[in-house]
Amino acid sequence: MPVKDQGPLTSTDAEHANISDSAEEFEVFKKTADGVSFRDVGRFKACVLFVKVLFATGVLSLPSALLSLGAVGGAISIVAWGAFNTYAFVILGNFRLRRPHCHSIADMAEVAGGVTGKEITGFLFIVGYVLVTGSGIVGVSTALNALSHHAACTVWWSFLAMVVVIATASIRKLTHVGWLTYAGFISIYAAVLIVVIGVTRRDRPAAAPQTGPYDLGYVNINNPGFTAGMVASSTIFVSSADTSAFLPVISEMRNPKDYKKALYPCMVLATASYLAFSLVVYRWCGQWVASPSLGSAGQTIKMVSYGVALVGLIVSATLYLHVGAKYLFVRILGKSRHLQANSAVHWGTWLACTIALGALYFSLAEAIPIFNYLIALVGSLSFAPLAISIPGLLWLHDHAHYLKGSLMQKVKFLLHIGMVLLGIFILVGTTYGVIIQIMAAYADGTIGWTFSCADNSNSS
């Protein structure tokens, strides 16, 4: 039975007052349901899942973003976007606690914008996770290329990555995917540390001329121009913006009200790690930084780091594919007994979702094989509306009375209108910038023909 929307808040404390234990009956997945029990994710495992969702392929593009913005400009951007994305997800989390039938951000959009809002948001959600899983497949194929010395065509490595990711993402329950995230997080974090240590042990960057004078290209503040600046800012933004993937995790938590206890440690760890990693690599590599950045410390360290990171890259793509497929799965079977029943319909629908989306991700990864561009497109086309504009709209829906309230309430209302407009600005500006750069990359041969064997993934 669908739950009736409780309506907008009527006081500053109502948000907490309306979150009651009776909401349990309206949760998407039931604790006592016959068949598959999805609700067994504790807050520690939720925190690990959150961290692994964030600390993935996005971190590998941050040093290149600092190349465009400079060390100080990039550092400010990392901290600011980390804090902003944390606040935006608190809006989403609180909105969901008051409406426990919401499994995804599309369900929340339906509350505020009806069926039209739900379908538009659902489309953006799928597009976002098509793009971000495509970046994961590019990362895995790049790792396999590095480890094999390009012994096979890049397309075959990408195809192999797709098969592995589909197989692992087809595990139905997040709690069972959760054990993979421990290995995945340790893997990618260790690989990043290897590169950080590796670049500081060299006299000069691996990609720089190894004899004679050279220009490091390190600056504190840079003026990259509108196109490059928007792409760099979007790259930093997206590294902590895929918080819409946290919502399906909350739906599988034993106690969804504990989500903040998982969120805050996750965002602090991710932001601090991003800041330290990107600043060190940029300081030692400057304009000679590679993208993905695991190739910045020379061939030997590159092979070691990709070997260590391979599990983490696979797990990242697995989580993204799982979240996207789970959204479609719940949309298709949400009002059916097959949602939590071990039936042929249940299994057939679930596997169809993972296989179909996996094939789509593979096709996209081959069409846009340059890592930075995929990451920036994720930020502009999907996460700008999902992580900025829509949280702003949901806050306005719940706080409409602020427009007629005190001066401070009116200021808050106007600031959240600005939040909506900021998302639209990033959507338009960054998409324009990425399209211009992709067209230039095709024109100058940086990107070869689609499904060619050329390895474009290390281009910056």
Produce a short descriptive summary.
This protein has about 450 residues and is an all-alpha fold. It contains 14 helices and no strands.
CATH architecture: Up-down Bundle
Task: Give the low-pLDDT segments.
Answer: 10-21, 456-460
Distance between the termini: 51 Å
Counting structural domains, the number is 1
Question: For the record, what is the CATH homologous superfamily label?
Answer: Amino acid/polyamine transporter I
Mean pLDDT: 81
> Count of DSSP helices?
14
Tell me the total number of β-strands. Answer: 0
Structural class per helix/strand content?
mainly alpha
Please bin the fraction of helical residues.
Answer: 55-70%
Radius of gyration: 22 Å
Organism: Penicillium canariense
InterPro entries: AA_transpt_TM
Subcellular location: Membrane
GO molecular function, one term: L-amino acid transmembrane transporter activity
Please give a structural write-up:
The chain has 460 residues and is mostly helical. The chain has a single domain (38-206, 218-443), classed as Up-down Bundle (Amino acid/polyamine transporter I). Helix content is 67%, strand content 0%. The chain has 14 helices and no strands. The longest helix is centred in the first third of the chain and has 44 residues, at 105-148. This is Amino acid transporter transmembrane domain-containing protein. One of its GO terms (molecular function) is L-amino acid transmembrane transporter activity. The chain crosses the membrane at residues 46-66, 72-95, 123-141, 147-167, 179-199, 226-250, 262-284, 304-323, 344-364, 370-396, 417-442. Residues 45-436 form the Amino acid transporter transmembrane domain. It is found in: Membrane.
